[in-house]
Write a structure and sequence with these properties.
Shape: globular
Helix content: 25-40%
Mean pLDDT: 79
Largest sheet: 15 strands, parallel
Structural class: alpha/beta
Number of strands: 20
Distance between the termini: 75 Å
Radius of gyration: 31 Å
Number of helices: 14
Length: 495
């Protein structure tokens, strides 16, 4: 019989064999080839890559030879009591010890309350020197209510002449741009996202986009109180243009208007931007924000899709909206989103086959019929009711009081209602095949629109109704499904 020592050794041997079989106790990650480990580290932000040095000695310098995506965000250091010097030292250290023979694929820095613009300048120059492909720079300043006292940073000229730079994103109130007067700039830039708020240098910004030979996608975000900016966009390869323009509050404008000799009434407000666009290959155009600027397109025949998303509608800018819609009236796909469009609609959307309408309030019902009338080739219609709040003027319906005909639902006292057009839109009888309704709450106007389209849509194949609460619209659903459809093949589904 074996003694206790033999039994103990036997158990330890058995345990070791089991651990070996299951890989327990082995550092299996460190056993991976350097190529795989470098690929893993390249997917991490530098802060996490550096932390891998605590795993083993083998990891100490591994990260320096493989990271090409450098992402530095001040918020990652928010746990520090005074994180500014720690953040700066970390970025400087990474740039100093990384393998300088490797090009930087992506460099991003986001510095809130930047205290030294010269540091940002040095980092940008280092990224450009390392042949960066994607450059993303965002920084702001805590200036105690005196932003105009801060001297801005001039974007290094090497950014404009870089041959490696393909994507550029800048967001800061404190950047100016000294555009080269000769030669080509942004020679290989395809994607540009520009954001400037409050304290922009209009003189340098206006010509930033006037010579972009291979630019394909451009986004411009701006907030302007009173200055009229004239953006000159010349990009022969531009496919997608997005502009998001907001304006100062009435109080901000009134104060500045009084300072300049105005009466402070706000009636002298002018448009914040004029866009002169020479982009013969432009296919997608999105105009969004709180105010409508003026757009002068050299040639709009290439446009395929347009989005107009205005958070507010000012009567003063109605002419600009009308002029813009007329210029883009040949598009095939369109999104219209605003509190009102009725006074601005063009004569006809001759090529439009898909349209999405986003409704903000009850007054939107008044221009729905007009849009249908001027869209003779419409095949796909999306109606988004999600932003309309129920209650008040459009309460949930008393379905028991409704008759079985369309008129009994719509001609009700006290509602700013949808009224069907006097003449049946041609798209309903010959073209419209698919309808999608979003944010359906079962209000009288929504039921009226749905039943009207179902009743007169002679070639409809599919109607999809997305409900905010399926249980609360059970009666409305039954009422809609009970109506006689204009198309015998139409399938109606509630989701």
């Amino acid at each position: 019989m074996k003694d206790s020592g033999d039994l103990k050794r036997a158990r330890e041997d058995s345990k070791s064999q089991l651990q070996a079989a299951e890989g327990i106790g082995d550092d299996r990650i460190s056993a991976l080839p350097d190529e795989i480990l470098c690929h893993i580290l390249s997917l991490l932000i530098p802060l996490y890559s550096v932390r891998t040095t605590v795993l083993s000695k083998r990891w100490n310098n591994l990260w320096t030879s493989c990271i090409t995506n450098l992402d530095f965000d001040m918020y990652d250091f928010r746990s520090s009591w005074y994180n500014y010097p720690i953040f700066v030292r970390f970025v400087n250290r990474v740039l100093a010890v990384r393998d300088s023979s490797l090009d930087i694929r992506r460099f991003r820095v986001d510095w809130v309350d930047c205290e030294d613009f010269s540091i940002i300048d040095r980092w940008i120059r280092a990224a450009i020197k390392a042949n960066v492909v994607e450059l993303d720079v965002s920084f702001s300043v805590e200036c105690c209510g005196e932003p105009y006292l801060v001297r801005p940073l001039e974007m290094p000229r090497s950014v404009f002449t870089s041959k490696s730079l393909v994507a550029l994103k800048v967001k800061s109130d404190y950047l100016t741009y000294s555009i080269p007067t000769t030669g080509c700039y942004f020679p290989n830039l395809k994607f540009l996202h520009f954001s400037s708020w409050y304290n922009s240098d209009s003189a340098s910004e206006e010509n930033l986009f006037r010579s972009c030979p291979v630019l394909e996608e451009l986004t411009i975000e701006g907030h302007h109180k009173e200055d009229v900016l004239n953006f000159n966009i010349s990009a022969p390869e531009l496919r997608t243009l997005t502009t998001i323009i907001t304006e100062g509050s009435d109080e901000e404008f009134d104060e500045s208007n009084e300072d300049s000799g105005g009466d402070g009434s706000g009636e002298d407000r002018v448009e914040p931007c004029n866009f002169f666009i020479d982009a013969p290959k432009l296919e997608n155009l999105c105009v969004a924000g709180e105010v409508m600027s003026k757009y002068i397109l050299e040639n709009s025949s290439s446009l395929v899709q347009a989005k107009v998303q205005l958070q507010e509608f000012h009567e003063a800018c109605a002419d600009r909206v009308a002029e813009f819609l007329d210029r883009i009236s040949s598009v095939r796909y369109m999104v219209l989103s605003a509190p009102d469009f009725k006074p601005c609609l063009p004569h006809v959307f001759s090529n439009l086959i898909k349209l999405e309408l986003v409704f903000y309030n009850q007054s939107c019902w008044k221009w729905l019929a007009d849009v249908l009338n001027i869209s003779p080739n419409l095949e796909y219609l999306v109606l988004d009711f999600a932003k309309i709040k129920s209650g008040g003027r459009d309460p949930l319906p008393d379905l028991e009081s409704f008759g079985d005909d369309f008129a009994s639902i719509n001609m009700r006292e006290g509602w700013d209602s949808f009224h069907p057009p006097e003449f049946l839109p041609s798209c309903l009888s010959s073209q419209l095949k698919t309808i999608s309704i979003k944010g359906f709450k079962g209000t009288p106007n929504e039921i009226g629109v749905a039943t009207y389209l179902l009743s007169y849509g002679e070639v409809l194949n599919k109607v999809i109704v997305s409900c905010e609460s399926c249980s609360s619209i059970r009666g409305a659903k039954e009422k809609i499904l009970s109506f006689e459809k204009g198309s015998k093949t139409c399938q109606v589904s509630f989701i």
